[in-house]
Amino acid sequence: MSNQLEELKQRLLAVIDEYKKLKPQAAANTTTPATNNKPAETKPAAPANPAANAQAKPADTTAKPATVVASKTLSGSVGDKGQNKPADVLLVKTLLNKFTPSFNLSDTKTNTLVGPTTIGVIKKFQQEKAGLANPDGLISVGGKTWKVLNGETPATGATTTPNETPAASGKDFTHPAAARVNIAYSSGGSAHPLNDRATKLLKSILASCNIFSATVTSTKRTFADQARIMLQYYPTYAAMSGLYGVETANAAFKQGKSRAQFAQWLKERYTRTGRGSNHIPGFAIDVVPGSNRAAYAAKAQELKGKGTGVAHIIPKGVGGEKVDHIEFSFEVTNIKGIQ
Question: Which of 19, 48, 149, 259 has most Cβ atoms within 10 angstroms of its Cβ?
């Protein structure tokens, strides 16, 4: 019996041994290769409504310039010391260009600023088209300038077109003997040559008085020219204030300014307010007639503000004026811009 048990034990041990030998091989045959042992890649499910699940963007808070639309009618004054509401400024600039394209105000769709150029054009319009003897550079609601500009009142001068020069309008005063007049220019100053239109008008005024020679002593000036001439010919406070006013005399004599500083003061005031001599934008001429000066001044006074091209006259001696100062309703030289 013991022998039988021992034989059975040996057989069991042999089976166990065989099993141990077969187990590693079976395990190798049933293991997934390493390259296929990665976890399955999962993708998020597509949203049912992509637009609804899109990431919200922050609101654009960047300030954008306001769009200004020109008024249909004038609601406030525009020009020198005017209310200058942006929509009214655009309306006025658009009408000025439409009425007389040669005025050529730029940026009429976006530029709502009123500076010396705009004020100068308004004054030119008032002189040339509205017939104002003393243009102030301001367009008021219901005023004469506005009525002419918007067509309620006829203009005193013909509207020019891009193909028509102001001299061809036939509205400037003319005289048949104008060609006989000789005009000379002072040297070493601001006596820049007159353009053709200004030459013709000045010669016509002189010829109508039987004056056939004259000397032009000054036309368009720089601010440095203006300061030099004012201090040279009006060297005292009383003389300066008599022609140019107390504010200017104070700047010239009571604030310790050099000539260059006084010129800068003139420029800054003109830029800020549009106030200053009409020699600066180029509308003025200082003239010394060859004879019969009183007749020349009287004729210019007679023509002033009547659509003849003559806008203003300050005869010699008035307010301390040293020569006959005449202003036309248009630029008298071919020099453009404020110098």
Answer: 149
Separation in Å, CA 92 to CA 121, 135, 145: 11, 16, 11
Distance in angstroms (rounded) separating the CA atoms of residues 211 and 325: 17
pTM more than 0.70: no
